[in-house]
């Protein structure tokens, strides 16, 4: 058993409860021991029922939120697979990783996953799938996420933490950090040019200011 912060229904407070430790069922799966989990406005929206009827609505109750967290790999899937080892990212027990919510178990066979040059500009992942896969799930939304001691995650979506970065620092970077960094990169500015960051004191904005400074923008 493990402890988890759960929602039993919409519009009720989170409660501390006990759930079964999740089981790995895909050759891509890793079992993570969570060490830091960030709370996003999306978690509040989900708890308020704003995703009800949407593909991102919780598929089971009690629901475990959080789509931005970090922790340590404690187990690796041994599910038999016909997949080439080249298509399964290599991780080891003890690796420290950051985990974004999407895309959990993308199919790799749909139109989006097979499209070499997507119209939205986000290329297919080297592992052979798209973050826009309509068949993928989202940790913390449609499936249970990081407000728990243990979570099953997709090895294609996690990233190793650099030495010296704590889980507390890493957790918000895999959602808020990625979001604002992607926006800054799309500006295609050169060093020395100016960028305006609206809401620079917010969760994304304060990271954007730091990223822009490191990019040598004004």
UniProtKB/TrEMBL annotation:
Its cofactor is Zn(2+). Residues 27-162 form the Alcohol dehydrogenase-like N-terminal domain. One of its GO terms (molecular function) is alcohol dehydrogenase (NAD+) activity. Keywords: Metal-binding, Oxidoreductase, Zinc. The keyword Ion transport does not apply. GO terms for cellular component: cytoplasm. The keyword Transport does not apply. This is Alcohol dehydrogenase-like N-terminal domain-containing protein. It comes from Aspergillus puulaauensis.
